[in-house]
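Give me the fold.
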Amino acid sequence: MNVHAPITEATTGNMTSKGQVLIPKALRERAGLFPGGEVTVGMNDRGEVVVLPRAQAESSEERRRRIRASLEAVRGTMKTGFATTDEYMDFIRPHRLESW
């Protein structure tokens, strides 16, 4: 959050007497903000106010399942042009490189 990024979309507006600011629909959708959703509002070291959707905490088991599913999705998909993935991995392993 402390790294300044250029603003790619901007709009102007007013703050109400209650401190409410309208965030345009296109920006809300891109940021993952939705009505009734929880948000985190803070200020970074540049004095910029930042609004983020509150991340849902995942358990270590959920994280493990998500990572394993991601790895499983790409298993065996490497295109080497000359070998299967297993053959290529054998080819690049250190014991193989020592014989060069």
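The first helix runs from residue 25 to 31.
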